[in-house]
Amino acid sequence: MGAPSVPADSLVPRPAEISTGAYDGLVLTPSTRIDADHAARGAELWLRTELGAATGLPLPRGDGQSAQIRLSVDRGAGLGSEGYRLIVDGEGALVVGHDPAGVFYGAQTLRQLLPPAAYRRAPLEPDGRWTLPSVRITDRPRFGWRGCMLDVGRHFMPKHDVLRFVDLLALHKLNVLHLHLTEDQGWRLEIKRYPRLTEVGAWRTESQVGAGSPAAFDGRPHGGFYTQDDIREIVAYAAARHITVVPEIDVPGHSQAAIAAYPELGEGEPVGVARHWGIIDNVLNVTDTTLEFYRNVFDEVLDLFPSTYICVGGDECPKEQWRRSPTAQRRIREEGLADEEELQSWFVRHFDGYLAERGRRLLGWDEILEGGLAPGATVMSWRGTEGGVAAARAGHDVVMCPTDTSYLDYRQSGDDGEPVPVGTVLTTEDVYAAEPVPAELSEQEARRVLGAQVNVWTEHMDTPRAVDYMVFPRLAAFAEAVWSPGRREYGGFLPRLEEHLRRLDALGVEYRPLSGPLPWQSRPGVPGRPR
User: Fold this and answer.
1) How far is CA 157 from CA 150, 181, 257, 330, in A?
2) Is the pLDDT of residue 437 over 50?
3) Across-strand partners of 86?
4) What does pTM read for this prediction?
């Protein structure tokens, strides 16, 4: 491009070490070649595809020293898991990663060194000048779990938008997409053995609007689901960007869509797919038949998702139906359980054992602590940090995602113009300042914190545009909090974020302006802004 290269200190997330060089940098031309060793071929393909589209340059494969951009894996370089070194000097650009993921993150940083137009799908100037500044960067992530939970159960997100979301996670060096696939309001995953889960459970007659009482409804049917081939595509696309897709199949609560499809799974009268939000009383029964049903479901889930972690939910499970149920009360007596809390623990432990036998690990929200934690379970601490602290002290791994710093469905200011005025105020600065490791943990206990994630619950986000508005720029702040080491200062982050928003502009991300909501953004689902 005619514009100068982006300053090296505009990178998001901030690298661990960075220094500028004394050289003029590397000018990309039609003769610029990219080379990679075998282990770095995936990053090479990604970089050529993305930069080739934006610059119009062919960027053919080079041959060793004949290439101006070289990518390689070197486990002996002392970089650590997912770490990389990026050097741009007068001879070219070199990306060395500890592993293929490290090379990919180095390639992401290289792209950020170019002007924001490097994020467009076609060149703006046919003969533009593209220059990488001279830098030396050594970088690695602070945490191994850098995640985002996307709820497609409340409002379905079409596959092509999920793939776009994956690219946005990769841009920010996040490596876990926690896909919330089942809910009271919709079942989104094709299960061959039980076709009614999507024939019936994927569709509702209408949706609640807002969070007021009495509830109002939009009168519009809503639904959708992913075929198994859709899921295979999403998983493979994410894996190519070093993102693990962790599926969530909710049990024993948040299961009304499944009960609507197969009433024998429930405790009460037949029900439809839920159309309102909140905690719903209908839960799974605890019969052997229901356990077998879900083992069969998880058999297909495990075939589709290679993730070590499989989420079973376990949150917000009302117990009133079990208290009234002769079957549930008999199960409590037969298993020697104290009460309904231990009954839920028994249910979760069943699937902990099932997953462990298959080389997987159970992941659940912090309610799975109640009644006794399953031996192999990993806890997502969402009701504050207390659950994470308790689990870590008990020797369990933890992913931190407390509501007050991690829920991106929460309002972004106290302004009445916010299009989604729910929850407490959670600003970009709040997300940036949040510390994933609770201060009360000892050094040894803190090692149980795998990392953190932000959660995108979509009750009030009925379009991908609305998701953009609620997620960005807060996701960029979170990405730096879980990637970058050392002390964080929002005043130093803000100028880099402002530059980063130009990249999001080029990608067409409909983020919330830092200045706050604009008048036409006061209606849900209308987050757009002038270009």
Assistant:
1) 9, 11, 17, 41
2) yes
3) 95, 137
4) 0.96
